[in-house]
Specification:
single chain, 448 residues, alpha/beta, 14 helices, 38% helix, binds pyridoxal-5'-phosphate
Length: 448
């Protein structure tokens, strides 16, 4: 295999030069006389700072880094998913604790899958063919919701929002009044554009027209305040691998009493056997919490639960609650602010309107004439930190950095800014050395 370019050894005097080359002189003492042939040789190496690490640090907007106790929770022999001890020791405490994370008194259904599973399960459970749905589409994941609604034959209308722009609530309200949808859907935190939308205000609009409010919180839950009950979110749908800092593989849906009623009044059962939430209510939720499972009786699982992932989720949720939600939201806010200040000091602009920038995903415009994919490759291969390019139509103009769970901290934000600066320098973009890190450091210091 050809050696990687950065690992190339080079004799002094060669005309070949590479940015960032460091000149190393081989040791000439301690082990006897130097080989006369190499005595004068000085070796130049472009150091690959990533090489000594076994994996890149995940600064992408999910999956994100896992706390060590969460990783450890998976290091165990298999347990039986229908065994009572698993139900009592892991499943039940996890679902109960998730209610605190979701800020709901209602049920949080946890099933194998990912964010998309949660969105699809939620949508297909409450929407029947030809039901009117108003979908706020402010980015790639709004579009995803539209596609899901399409698949279940909903009569959907998109309320398009320019990517990165504010949501016009007055216009949305008018549109909701005109359409009178059965459900209104919103992506709380658009991961494709790094924006956070005012879910509480949109919930009010949904309520004012008697619509269910379906909220995608895949990249906000446990990083940004999401008040499921207080706002009136009927289906709060998310995945495990972002700010919850759990491994990928779990879908979560918090269901309001209104949403259960709508499911119970369906003219025909939902067209999925496994992901029909009503089946979960019947098989999974105890009578004392509004379900059909006699209290104390073992629940049934519409799909076999992945025991290792559930154990990891149990620990992830415990860590979140031990930290406290208020602390966690503030931590994400400070980390994202520091990142943004650092980027600004490097002369880099954010993509979205400054009033709606996200605290979990930063979407930035790449300096002119630099390819986002080249920045990602350089940061990963040479500096060991993985960030993401933009999605879809923004792939060639933007980059995205996650500050989620563990990574919303100086331990991750400062090295990321440093690596970004170095990678950009390698690619020809110059800014004052250390300016980004210094500005971010100051922001962390200001936050106390
Ligand atoms: C806002 C949002 N919604 C939905 C999804 C899809 O989730 P998953 O990839 O877990 O299926 C994502 C994934 O990044 C997302 O960020």
């Amino acid at each position: 295999m050809a050696p990687a370019p950065h690992a190339r050894l080079q004799m002094i005097g060669s005309r070949e030069t590479e940015p960032g080359s460091t000149y190393l002189r081989p040791p000439t003492n301690g082990t006897g006389p130097a080989d006369p042939a190499t005595e004068e040789a000085i070796v130049s190496v472009t150091i690959n700072w990533a090489q000594c690490h076994t994996r890149p640090v995940l600064m992408i907007p999910g999956p994100t880094e896992l706390p060590f106790p969460v990783i450890q929770a998976m290091n165990q022999p298999p347990s039986i998913q229908y065994d009572r001890s698993f139900d009592e020791a892991v499943l039940e405490p996890t679902t109960l604790a998730l209610r605190d994370v979701f800020q709901t008194k209602n049920e949080v259904i946890m099933m194998p899958g990912s964010g998309r599973t949660a969105l699809e399960a939620g949508a297909l459970s409450v929407i029947e063919p030809r039901d009117r749905v108003l979908v706020v589409g402010a980015g790639q994941f709004g579009v995803l919701m539209r596609e899901i609604m399409n698949r279940i034959d909903a009569d959907w209308t998109e309320f398009p929002v320019e990517w990165g722009a504010r949501l016009d609530l007055t216009r949305l309200e008018r549109e909701a009044e005109r359409i009178r949808p059965k459900a209104l859907t919103l992506v709380h935190n658009e991961t494709s554009t790094g924006t956070t939308y005012p879910a509480a205000e949109v919930a009010k609009i949904a309520r004012s027209v008697g619509a269910l409010f379906l909220l995608d919180t895949v990249s906000s839950i446990a990083g940004i305040d999401v008040r499921t009950d207080e706002w009136g979110v009927d289906l709060n749908m998310t995945g495990s691998q972002k700010c919850l800092a759990a491994p990928i593989g779990m879908a979560l849906v918090a269901v309001s009493p209104r949403a259960w009623e709508v499911m119970e009044r369906r003219s025909k059962p939902a067209r999925s056997w496994v992901y029909d939430l009503l089946r979960w209510k019947e098989w999974w939720v105890p009578v004392s919490r509004g379900g059909k499972v006699p209290d104390g009786a073992p629940r049934r699982q519409p799909v076999s639960m992945p025991t290792h992932l559930t154990a990891a989720m149990n620990v992830a949720v415990r860590l979140i609650l031990e930290e406290g939600l208020a602390h966690r939201f503030r931590r994400h806010e400070v980390a994202a602010t520091a990142l943004r200040r650092g980027l600004a000091a490097m002369g880099i602009e954010m993509f979205p309107d400054s009033s709606i920038v996200s605290n979990t995903v930063s979407c930035l415009r790449v300096p002119r004439s630099i390819e986002p994919a080249a920045v990602v490759t350089q940061m990963r291969d040479r500096y060991g930190i993985l960030i993401g390019t933009g999605l879809d139509k923004m792939r060639t103009t933007t980059l995205r950095i996650g500050t989620m769970g563990l990574t919303a901290s100086p331990q991750y934000v400062l090295p990321t800014l440093s690596a970004l600066e170095l990678a950009l320098r390698d690619l020809g973009y110059k800014c004052e050395p250390g300016a980004g890190v210094a500005a971010a450091q100051a922001a962390f210091a200001d936050a106390g």
